[in-house]
Amino acid sequence: MRKVIADHVVEDIHYPVEGNYIIRLKSHVNIPPVKPGNFAQLLINNSPDVFLRRPFSILNVDYKKRIISFYVKIIGKGTGQLGKYKKGDKVNAIYPLGNSFSIPGLGNKALLVGGGSGIAPFILLAKELRKNNIRTTFLLGGKSKKNILLTEEFEKYGEVLFTTEDGSLGEKGLITDHSIFQSAHFDFDKIYTCGPEPMMKTIGKIARQRSINCEVSLENKMACGFGACLCCVTETVEGNKRVCMEGPVFNVNFLKWQI
Ligand SMILES: Cc1cc2nc3c(=O)[nH]c(=O)nc-3n(C[C@H](O)[C@H](O)[C@H](O)COP(=O)(O)OP(=O)(O)OC[C@H]3O[C@@H](n4cnc5c(N)ncnc54)[C@H](O)[C@@H]3O)c2cc1C
Ligand code: FES
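^ thats the input. predicted complex w/ FE2/S2 (inorganic) cluster below
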């Protein structure tokens, strides 16, 4: 897979809600093909405290305009610093990294379950599922309506269901409590999930109980991002695997999760 390692220029950055931003970077070289689930390592060099690159799922790509975008939730120094960048600032980026989601067979039905910034890989995934004629349902969750982003984008690709903790959009409660999981018509062939680990574990458990193929995208802490430091490993049925190389996407049955 061809990789880009290059300075990019901030095209724009906007905050749909406080603490979360979408940053679009313009590349001066052609963007290589990106698969759903691939991520990038961004160098955030405004601050001496942030010397390691930070990993982010690739939200979207405009190959013609050479623009790549990311949805970032501010967690600490790196995401905070990057959120202060302005149009024209430079960000060095390496991508595409990692593996990608697998696409089920023609005519299948897929459920995409995402919480918080975990929705980031779902736009590219939804595009790929549409290309393959897979009927797609999204289940998105957050604290309240304002925390659920990109709804209009997802509606282009399928039915969108919601849960919010305060009940301001969709069903009230946690994403894992949505009534779809109790429905007699729960007939999905594939579940994809990305977000907080407890949420992914619960979704993984539901998938296992119903014998549905389920892929999760892990967001383990990373350092090098190219397989050398082993700081991102996760336990699997075949021993430790590096999330940056063998992941970030894993079949839930391959992980040694106590669920
Ligand atoms: C493959 C992959 C894809 C990702 N995609 C996205 C994305 O699309 N959007 C997004 O907002 N974030 C994403 N993340 C998470 C993102 O990389 C971290 O939030 C970011 O690196 C934190 O950097 P920071 O300097 O702001 O925080 P730091 O100052 O480094 O850390 C602040 C706090 O957050 C904790 N922390 C740091 N990294 C992580 C992590 N990966 N998971 C959980 N806790 C962490 C630290 O232990 C510390 O307590 C992804 C991570 C991976 C591995
Ligand atoms: S981050 Fe270094 S091996 Fe994965």
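Helices lie at 77-82, 122-131, 151-155, 197-209.
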